Every structure is written in structure tokens, then in C-alpha cells.
């Protein structure tokens, strides 16, 4: 792995809260939740060629249906969803958010269906990998720095064509109590395409309002362990705050644009950790 890649100091052992009071009675509920998530993902694999993932047939499935389906995925995992904030414009748009969990992906798509920017490793994930590939995901090979300009050009082309592209510019997941620095490359694509940037703030709480790191997917955590932790938790709430879009032409370099977007995507209870 390249030394320039962003990394977070968060680890499952040091940062992630394990749900308390998981009893034998909670196991069947968790299994039902995970079964529901898998069934919804499989349905997405079947239907994705007819929807936003196919350039020839894009738009056959209404965006409202895609948004509702993404909410169902999160809800099937036992997580309530609250989406608040600004309206989301049509046309080319770069959505950027802080990154805590695998849940962030369907949550962003619940705001607006978009082509995700994801690391190439996601292709190998069971169920979710094929869905991502067929859904038009733009993959980035983080081990090949030389491929970055081509990736930026592909993102800019998708934005010019009127697509929304969703990205997590931290480049790595964080536990939620801290946040990394937004990498600037993806913002160059928005500048090149002349489209707005819409920051989105994601945070996870318990029903009583207490913040929690239980949904975090960090460090050497496995996807299966994270899925089980979410499915066995009780009272999880995902709060998604859509911030006002940053219009094109208000920033003339990617550093300034990233610096403007990052604080708006930082949960109020986090602090930023600068990463070399």
C-alpha cells in the first residue's frame, strides 16, 4: 500500500462501542435484520441495469424509488433515518460527506441517487461489490498515484453529463468522534466541470440523543463484524444533515473549495485531525 494514502488512527478496539446487553433473544432479531439487508441488496443487483447504473436506460427507475430503497436498507439494519437541511439541486453535483460507516453509502443515496466514488477493493465485497459495479460506481485505485488524474477526469466527465457523484474526501473511515482532512483531488473535478458542491453531515446517535461509535467501520474491522454490531444494537439513529450547496465560481482552486466544504460536513461533536 502506498505511503501517501490517508489513514485514520481509529481502531475497533480503541474507538468502537460494542452494543451492551446483547442476549440470546437479540440474535434472531439481528439475523432477521441482516436477512432483510441482503434481500434488499439482491433486489438492487437485479434492478440496477434498469436504473441509474445503465447509461442507456438511466432514469427508468424514478429517483424517489431509489431514495426510498436506500432508506429501507438502513432501516432493515435496525437504524432509524433522519434527513434534514437544504434542498438538493438537479444536474451535475458533487456530494461530499464525512465517512464513518458502510451505512454512509445508502444514506447519501437516500439524499440523491449518485455515482459513488469508491476504492477498488469494494468490487470484491460480497453482494455489495456487484451492486456497486452495476450501479455505475467510479472506482479509484488508491495504490496507483499515477492513475489519479485519469480518475479526476472521469469524475469531471460524469458531472458534466449531469450526474451526481458522491465521495468521501477523507479517504478513510473515522470513528465519528474525530475527522480527517478532506483530500483535494475530487474537488478539482467539480471545478473542471463547473458544478456545485453539496456537503453532507452524517452522525450516529442512540434514541436518547447520546452519540455512538457502534456503526463505525474502521481499521482492521471486518465487514461481517460491523454488520453484526449494527444489527444487534438497539436504538440507533442516523442523522443526515444536507448543507447548502457551494455554487460554482465561488472558489477558484481545489484547496480553497475543500477547506470551505470540510467544516460543513463535520459533526458538531468531532474535532479535525490533520493527516500528512
Any descriptors?
globular; 9 strands; 16% strand; lipid metabolism; 276 residues; 7-stranded mixed beta sheet; Glycerol-3-phosphate (1)-acyltransferase; disordered C terminus; two-stranded parallel sheet; 9 helices; alpha/beta
Quote the average pLDDT. 85
| CATH class category | Alpha Beta
How much beta, percentage-wise? 15-25%
Radius of gyration based on Cα positions? 18 Å
- Helix and strand run: HHHEEHEHEHEEHEHEHE
CATH topology: Glycerol-3-phosphate (1)-acyltransferase
Termini separation comes to 15 Å
Discrete helix count: 9
CATH architecture group name: 3-Layer(aba) Sandwich
Strand order in space, largest sheet: 1-8-7-2-5-3-4
How many independent structural domains? 1
Look at the helices and sheets and give the structural class. alpha/beta
According to DSSP, the number of beta strands is: 9
List low-confidence stretches: 50-57, 271-276
Largest sheet: 7 strands, mixed
The amount of helix comes to 25-40%
- What oligomeric state is this? single chain
Q: What overall form do the CA principal axes indicate?
A: globular
Blueprint of the fold:
Blueprint: H1 12-15, H2 26-47, H3 63-76, E1 79-85, E2 93-97, H4 104-111, E3 115-119, H5 128-134, E4 138-140, H6 148-160, E5 164-167, E6 178-179, H7 185-193, E7 197-206, H8 223-232, E8 236-242, H9 254-261, E9 271-272
Parallel strand pairs: 1-8, 2-5, 2-7, 3-4, 3-5, 6-9
Antiparallel strand pairs: 7-8
Helix pairs in contact: 2-3, 2-5, 2-8, 3-4, 6-7, 7-9
